[in-house]
Every structure is written in C-alpha cells, then in structure tokens.
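the two lines:
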Amino acid sequence: MNQAYWARNPQGPFATLIALTAAYCHPEAYDGAYADLTARARSAAPDDEQIRVFKEELGEALADPSRLPDDELFKAVEFDDGSDEAFLRRLWRDLYGDEPA
Amino acid sequence: MAELRGAGDEPDDGDASVRRLAADAGDAAGEVRSRHEPSPRAEYADVLRQETAKPNAGQADMSPVDADQAGADQAETDQGPEASIADVLERFDPRRAGLPEVSREDAAAYIEEHMADRPWLALVRDCSPDAQRVFVALDQGGGHAHIRHDGWVTEEMNERRVKNLEDPAQLDLEKREAHLDGIKGGNQSHRCGVLATRITDPEAFATAVARAAEHPDVRAALDSTGPFSVPVRLPISDVLGEDGYKFCAGSQLEPVNGSMIEAVANRTAWVQGDRSVPEPRTRPVGTFEGGTLTFTFRPSAFDGHEFNTILVNPPDTQSI
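prediction for all of em together
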C-alpha cells in the first residue's frame, strides 16, 4: 500500500520530524496547528519524548539537509519556502528563536 | 443564482456589494456545474449496488477495534458485504468521530436552516438522511473536509485554488480573489499544496467519512488523546469500492524545471505580485484509479480527535 513515509518507516531517519511537520505545518492542517506546535516546542514537558526527538532531528536535518530522505519532507509539508533547508530554518527560528541548532 | 456565477466560477460584472454567495446557492451550484462537467450525482448509489454484488467488493481492512463495534461487525458478517456498505452510513456514530451527536431529523432541519449561508449544505438537501447526518455532524465540528473537498466545489474552483490560491471556502469573493483563507480566522493568506481535489458525489463523500471512521488506523487517530494524530492514508478502493475513483476529481500544479518545490514557491511569489517568476500552470488530474485518500485530524471539542480534512490523491502524486 502507498503509505506515508512515517508509516512505512516508523523507525526511519527523521520519521518524527516528518510526521510532526505533516500534522502541524501542511497547508491543510487545522487553523492554529502551527501555533500549537510552537507552543508545544517552546514549553515542552520534560517527559515529552516525541518533541525531544523532533528537536533533535530538526537540528540534525539543519546541519545536513542532504541526509533527509528524498522529497519526503516536501511531500509531507508542501512548503512554499523553496527548499528543505529554507523551510527548516524558518521552522527552527519560529520554534526556538536564536537558540543554536 | 447570478451571485454564485460570480463566485469565481464565471466572469462577474455585477455589483461587488452583491458578489457574495447567498440564498439559493445550491441551485446555482448545480446550474454552474451542468455547464462545466457532468454531475455524478445519484450514480454512486448505482455503483455501490454493483460493487456489493461482487464477492468481497469494497471490503476494506476494517476489523473492529473495540467492543462497541463488535455488534455492528457481527451484523456485517451475518448480512454479507452488501450490508457492510449499505449500513455503513446508518451506523455512523458522530461521537465516535469526535463530533456532536446529530439525529436524522435534526440534520434535515439544520440543512434547511443553514444552506443559504453555507452552500455546501445545499448539496445534500436531497441526499439520504444518513448522508445528511454525516454532513451536518461535520459542519458542527471544526474540520473543513466537506467545505473544500466535496461536490459543491466545481472543477473551475479547484483549478483556481491550485493555480491562484483562491479558496473555495472563502464566500466573500473579493477576499477570495485576494487569496484570503475562508476557514482560518484573521484574514490569513490561503495556502494550498500541489493538488486541489474533491469527492464529487455527496453520498460517496459521506461514505468515505463513515467507512474511514471504522478503519483501525483512523480509529487510533480519532481516539488518541495525545496532542496530535498523524495523517492516515488509505486506498480509495478500500473506502469507496473498486469504482470509487470515478467519483474523484481535481487539478494539480505543474512542476517548474522539473521541480514541484520550485513550482509551489513560484506560485506563492506569483500571487504576491512577483512577475519575475513564471505564471503557475495547472492541469486536471488524469485519473484517480489506484489513488488514495489522506485523512488528517484535529483535536476535538469532545474527547480525542475529529477529522480535519480529507484529501484525494491520484496514484502518482500523493499529498501528505
């Protein structure tokens, strides 16, 4: 079956990053989804393992976007930033401000 | 009716003050559609009857996930695959989909009361009471599947959405042409992926919702009390039957220099007035045969999650 990346590869590289950005950042996400992600990231509970992994993968993807699986981030988010890297930079800035990736 | 013809589907030379969808929008939608495309209305029921005549047709992998569903599934076993399709709308439980409970009687009354201002409801005025109940439950929830991705949207509206970011859900035509979102508050710019698609028949659309709500993966997403549920993708054939793809339509963006990433970025720049980029180009989706439906979710006002939207994907271009 033609499943989404995170369903095909639940333990695959950047699966958490791609799944969360699909749910919160896609153009068809619900009104307020991006704000919900921002709030969740900025005030992550100590036991929020998912957001911990998300931040870790976001940092790794920013350090070397070529490690992202082919086209999977764009397919999940359909961003209009022009490149994976531009989208990831915007996302990091919105979520974590000036904190070094 | 003239108002809807000015609703982005036809050239409009009328007074801007009246260029807003209003009263008999449902009749107007049918009139507009008749000039642009054949209506599949009422054909889905025929397809269902043909599908159910085939052994195992339309049988998705929808095993029960809890005791509440066990009785219905036993009935399904007792009555065969025909019952599994024919009864799916009847046994749809809005509360299990994170939506308010709606009776069939209340649904009919709600449609009559609100279809003037909510033209997507006019489409289901003549549908079965069970299909009406699905639409009204969705309309009282927070999602937009039945507003952007069902039969009241014409192909021209889909094309204008994916090309110009004109949101069919935006009923103020000046705001629609200004690319403002009709669902999100605060005059936010409308966004769209590489596809603008829909299920063309309201009975088929309601069936998609009801059947998906029984699928284990969708149930897990709806029942989740966590902060979010990831989108779930299912084959169209599993949800709507083997011929279900015939009730899907839409437009897709053309790549630029072989790149869809570049095409989407260029489209945003173009609608913002940047003429240094090529004008967006689109084409109708060729076929949905072998395609999928993507179900996305949002936190429900009740427990768990509800459907946020339903995206129809051709086999060669998957959204989410």
